[in-house]
Amino acid sequence: MVLDKLGDSLKHTLSKIKNSLTVDRTLVEEVVKEIQKSLLSSDVNVRLVLELSKKIRDRAVSENTKGLNKKEHLITIIYEELSSFLGQGEEFTLKEDKQNRLLLVGLYGQGKTTTAAKLGHYFKKRSQKVALLSTDTWRPAAGEQLQQLGKQAEIDVYTDPQEKDPVAIYEKFKAQLEKYSLVIIDSAGRDFLNDELVEEISKLNEIAQPTDTFLVLGADVGQTAQKQAQMFKERLDINGVIITKMDGTGKGGGALSACAVVEAPVRFIGVGEKIDEFERFNSERFVSELLGMGDLEALLEKAKLALDENKAQDMQERFMSGKFDLNDMYEQLKAMKKMGSMSKLISMIPGLGGMNIDKSQLSVQEQKLKVWGYVMDSMTAYEKKHPEEIDFSRTRRIASGSGTDASDVRELLKQFKQMKKMMHMFKNPSDMEDMDMENMKNPQDMMKMMKQMGMKQKDLKKMMKGARR
Ligand SMILES: Nc1nc2c(ncn2[C@@H]2O[C@H](COP(=O)(O)OP(=O)(O)OP(=O)(O)O)[C@@H](O)[C@H]2O)c(=O)[nH]1
Ligand SMILES: [Mg+2]
Questions:
Q1: Ligand whose nearest atom lies closest to the CA of 270
Q2: Partner of 2 for a Cys bridge, out of 87, 252, 307, 410, CB 3.0 to 4.6 A?
Q3: Of the residues 114, 118, 184, which should be mutated to test ligand 1's pocket, given the most ligand atoms within 8 Å of the CB?
Q4: What's the pLDDT at 320?
Q5: Which atom belonging to ligand 1 lies closest to the Cα atom of 278?
Q6: Closest ligand (CA of 115)
Q7: Tens digits of residue pLDDT in 335-387
Q8: Which residue has the higher pLDDT, 104 or 220?
Q9: Which residues line ligand 1 at a C-beta cut-off of 6 Å?
């Protein structure tokens, strides 16, 4: 199988990581060198190999291990970078609201015609009404070849052996093709990409307006494929690659490099000559198999969990710990800014979205947050950590440093105190016991609770008025 050799040497590298005593720079360098060697000997383009290995090295030495041990972390990086090299992205799906027209392009003998039939078979089994159209006026009996393949798959095939112009063929059958949900267009190949072929395919592309254009590459194609891929990319909107002959002995690296050149993910692979020897391609699964790690999935799951847990824990700690200080509030403010305006935020919260909250109230709040941002920018780290020590003279300094009023600083400090009180209450639910949470059905109950938490009647009224309007 293609890339078996690459898989073998990568597996060797991974076991080296597993068996090492420590993960240090020397090991990272060794691992990176080995990966480079494996990729190069599989015919992957030198520049791409260097780019890929640089990414692995950079991440390995600089990144936080996110709750994994160093070995697990390094293996995860290798896996992630290899997968993204093969092109991640959303899974290919057919459009639902219109006719899908898939145009297959590629050089001579790469497997376009066979793939047209395989794709047709694949989607016919998934309830599409499929037609195959041959626009190959170059290869003798190309139409016949497609007819035969179509017959095996019981798919309608349109072809005109007399016609020499692909565009004319398309126009001739256009009306008849309308009844199909999926039309797969096979195009002609050449042994090299010349102006004539480019011109021909560009015209066909213009007239057929394909919904997707796939570049078909054989796994045995050499490094020259990249140049051709580049030329196709310049003229056509290639949004997927199909690699055929994955069952062969090709090195595979040429095709993978070409893929990286067109910057389109591999969508399907051909794994044999038969019509059903064809699979959807999933880069992550492919790399797991390539690296031969049964436990890779478990490791990745762990990596994801660790990441989520880290985030959740940070948040929780911020909210629950009595240590909550202005630095945390500042971080929150910044995070909120990233998320967009407050009105947008509110519209995303279920239940609140439909509520008629006063827009002007919101913008007042937004303005306030902005001012608080300036205020905090002028505080020292110590002050943010110990806001209770911000006395009169500090307040004055902060206000003048941030171009705000002393009242803004005081308001921020007051708000912070209230928040802290609320945090404290979450931490000590017993404090809430005498608040009848169960029966909080109306705004008055809510007001009662807020009041108990130290909010001023005046502020509450303002808030409620805004919310009810
Ligand atoms: N083993 C194997 N052979 C394949 C696969 N896909 C295609 N082939 C073979 O590759 C050869 C060329 O395939 P075609 O489909 O005719 O290629 P093409 O791109 O249409 O060629 P032109 O029309 O001449 O440009 C045929 O013998 C196919 O059977 C595959 O996934 N595995
Ligand atoms: Mg063909």
A1: 1
A2: 252
A3: 114
A4: 60
A5: 31
A6: 1
A7: 555 445 555 545 444 444 444 556 666 677 677 778 888 898 889 888 988 88
A8: 104
A9: 106, 108-114, 136, 139, 142, 189, 244-245, 247-248, 270-273
Nearest CA owner, ligand 1 atom 7: 111
How is domain 4-88+295-304 classified at the CATH fold level? Four Helix Bundle (Hemerythrin (Met), subunit A) (1.20.120)
Nearest listed ligand to the Cα of residue 110? 1
More confident residue, 254 or 307: 254
Mean model confidence pLDDT for the chain: 80
Whether residue 229 is predicted with pLDDT greater than 50 in this model: the reply is yes
Contact 183, 157 (CB under 8 A): no
For a ligand 1 pocket test, name from 244, 276, 281 the mutation site with the most ligand atoms within 8 angstroms of its C-beta: 244
Question: According to the model, what pLDDT value does residue 43 have?
Answer: 84
Q: Where are the domains of the chain?
A: 4-88+295-304, 100-281, 322-427
- Domain 322-427 belongs in CATH node 1.10.60.30: no
Question: How many angstroms separate the alpha carbon of residue 216 from the centre of ligand 1?
Answer: 10
pLDDT at 294 over 90: no
Q: Read off the pTM.
A: 0.65
CATH number (3.90.226.10, 3.30.70.1530, 3.40.50.300, 3.40.630.30) of 100-281 reads: 3.40.50.300
